[in-house]
Amino acid sequence: MEYIILDLEWDSIFYKPEKRFVNHILQIGAVKLNENLDVIDTFSETICSQITTKVSGRFAKLTGITSEKMRAGIPFVEAVERYNEFCKNAEVTMTWSNSDLYTIIENQDLFLKKGPKFLIKGYLDLQKLVQGKLRENGYENKNQISLEGAAELLDISTDNFDLHTALDDCKACALMLKACYEKQKFDSMVKDTTLPDFYDRLRFKAYPISDINDSNINRNELKFTCPKCGSKTERMRPFKYRNRWFVADFKCTVCDFKFNGRVAFKKTYDDLQVKHKVCEYKSRKKKNNDMQSVPKAVSVAENRE
Ligand SMILES: [Zn+2]
Please, are residues 135 and 153 in contact by the beta-carbon 8 Å criterion? Predict the structure, then answer.
């Protein structure tokens, strides 16, 4: 069993044919691990861009890849062919966060239309695995953690590594994998990239639904029960769409309690995420004394299958 940890360095470059900036891959680094998770081979190629002769100052500073070094590299197609030869026996490929996968897709779509594609069988997001382990140890920050930050929390010294060069990032990742590896958890996190929806899922961008008549919306989600007595309510006015929320005032059919109901829908690849909120009713004329006992906001989040 062999594993690969892959890391890419990319520069944001204006791509004229598409009239937009793209994350242009300019270096591929990887380490190969045996089943004991020891590094048994390494890979590093710098890519000579086919669309630009210069790298940005920021990129050169961060990665050490100057325009001269970039121009001395090999073409992207060749780099991917060599990489695929390097990792041909690997069952699982890992990257630090799946942003590398997005960049791979973009670069393949733009520059490798007919050429080879990155060979990835099973895929695991190493950042997720490491962050899960850190959470077990009491680390609570929910934001995505940087490679350096995670290494520090795991007491792994990166002094001897040139971080932000692709190969050394991979070497640091290999140490973190070893520190966090548990077979069962690892196996459960490996995704099969050969499934037809694997890349569709990555390409899909979640979006908020702004049309109340959208067919994805279950009409029952637009109803609210009274937060005071649990009875049916009536909507007093049509919904308005404000800042990703559908907002309307409601009135209880039993106790006459009035409140402001809010519901938001976000379409993801697999489902529709629904959020409800109950807020204080604000009379358009003057504030009614009754309303001061209203809870400020009750938030309910749920996923619809
Ligand atoms: Zn009521």
Answer: no
pTM recorded for the entire structure:
0.73
Domains and CATH numbers, the chain: 2-203 (3.30.420.10), 207-304 (no CATH)
278's tokens: 């109950």
Tell me the pLDDT tens digit for each residue of 16-34: 999 999 999 999 999 999 9
CB 77 within 8 A of CB 41: no
DSSP state of 292: G
The neighbourhood of ligand 1, an ion, using CB within 5 A, equals 226, 228-229, 231, 252, 254-255, 257
CA of 281 to the centre of ligand 1 (A): 14
What's the first-to-final CA gap in the chain, in angstroms? Answer: 37
Cα angle 225, 231, 232 (rounded to 5 degrees) comes to 65
Query: 64 with 165: CB under 8 angstroms?
Result: yes
> Is 22 in contact with 12 (CB distance < 8 Å)?
yes
Token pair belonging to 9: 């360095």
Enter the tokens of residue 177.
Answer: 């994998």
